[in-house]
Amino acid sequence: MLGEYIGQFPALDALGKTCEILTWIWRGPPTYTSLIPPKDRPIRIAVDRVHLRRLKQLHMQSRRLVGDESERTVLQLRIVRMLVDLCLVDACEARGIPDPDVRLDMAIEYVRTHLNDPFVVDGLRNYLQMSKASLYRLFQNDTGMGPRAFTQEMRMNWARQQLGCAGSSVKAVAYALGYRHPPDFSRAYMQHFGSTASGRAKLTAAAPSV
Q: Which residues of the chain have a pLDDT value below 50?
């Protein structure tokens, strides 16, 4: 997925001094078009202390993940990759206003891979470094729902899909979504769809095989 290197190199702006270089090497080009350099010519991005601190955090996170080749880790590395690009885009913006479409994509991907986390919205705020109000506006403007409602929509749709698979059970789906008590999941499912989760599972079990 990536390689990285940190070393001491001669600083160009201070005679006899050295500076620390933070480097990622990704297999593919940046995910944001404005970060793709022209042919045979690099681009230069000035990074302030705030963005540099964020990049260092993402760098450490990627170093922890890169040794694991599980499917979950691959998804997490994709998120880190997009967040690195987003951070660099923020640094490039003259007014420091990030592209909301990029952040929404990051948010949806994060929610999709953390459906079993009961505190997913709090984790999402930390991931995107956004306030509660900013995160709410991001979702409301593009989806018509707040982040918690959007997350619950994804969770319940995933549950409905799983219950539509032969051999699945209400208890297994509840635990997979992070519920400690299956009846709590059943109540949430009923409130969301107006029908029971057990009824969905029984309907699937009763369906004739083709």
A: 1-13, 94-97, 210
Tell which residue, 198, 111, 207, has the closest CA to residue 166. Answer: 207
Task: Using CB atoms within 10 Å of the CB of residue 56, give its burial: 0 to 12 exposed, 13 to 18 middle, 19+ buried.
Answer: exposed
Give the residue among 163, 149, 162 at the shortest CA–CA distance from 191: 149
pLDDT at 61: 86
Q: What does pTM read for this prediction? A: 0.54
Cβ–Cβ under 8 Å, residues 173 and 197: yes
Considering Cα of 58, then 13, then 6, then 69, what sign does the dihedral take?
A: positive
State the number of CA atoms in the 13 A half-sphere of 98 facing the CB.
Answer: 25
Residue 128's CB is within 10 A of a number of other CB atoms, namely 19
Contact 45, 94 (CB under 8 A): no
- For residue 147, give the H/E element and its range: helix 147-163
The pair of structure tokens assigned to 15 is: 């005679």
> For residue range 155-172, what is the model confidence (pLDDT) as tens digits?
999 999 999 887 789 999
In the chain the first and final C-alpha atoms are separated, in Å, by 41
In Å, what is the CA distance from 68 to each residue of 50, 60, 81, 132, 143?
A: 29, 14, 16, 32, 34
Single-letter amino acid code for the residue at 205: A
DSSP state of 25: E
